[in-house]
Amino acid sequence: MIEINLVPDIKQELLRAQIIRARVIFGSVAIGIVSVAVVILLVIYVFTFQTVRSGLADASIEQGSDKLAAVTDLTKTLTIQNQLTKISVLNSDKKIDSRIFDVLNAIIPPSPNNIQISNLAINSSLELITIDGQAANSYAAVEIFKKTIEGAVLRYTDLNDAPQEVPLASDISTSNTSYGEDTTGAKVLRFTLSFVYAPELFSPASKGVSVAITIDGNVTDSYLGVPKSIFADRATDITGVN
Questions:
Q1: What's the angle, vertex CA 212, arms to CA 208 and CA 217, rounded to 5?
Q2: How does pLDDT run across 148-176, given as a tens digit for each residue?
Q3: Global pTM?
Q4: Is 81 within a domain?
Q5: Staple 109 to which of 67, 113, 136, 230, CB 3.0 to 4.6 Å?
Q6: Residue 235: inside a domain, yes or no?
């Protein structure tokens, strides 16, 4: 059987182009219809559901506002609640300044080297303690007071319950020394003593804090009242020499 193609090649190409054009037009129309449908749905959502939702939210807000307005002393209540939320933070950062009384009980020399304190200041930013005082036993008592502080150590336990020991003070200095009279007319030496304290002293992280005086085991007035440079360990014997 012999088949004869009566349609020229140009005719076939034209038919193919028409079919492709029809498909493109159909696809474009379909996409346009879907796009219009999506736009319509968005418009319905925005102007219907969102409006309803916004109205419900406004109603809820108004209802809540009415309830708050009905609360007596609302401002005070909110202020107290806000302060309560900060109590734990404040407690963790709060310095325990009351430990200064334990320090004074340990470092003030006993009679006859009496020391009287007229003013005490704690500068937490510089970790500095400044003491204004007077001594009945003049310079000797002040020197003993200073050396007692030099020999003081701070004992405590850290957060892991491990015992720790650090020097209580550093950079100890005296100034403004002058003679005067106390309220009874007795002659006294006025002075100002300052020192940098160990940060562990007032830290809330330090537990079981105590102050001890350890001046190489010697706490006598004769030792405290003379320069430390004249003291030394006893020389050892030389083997074989009589």
A1: 145
A2: 999 899 999 988 888 999 999 999 999 98
A3: 0.53
A4: no
A5: 113
A6: no
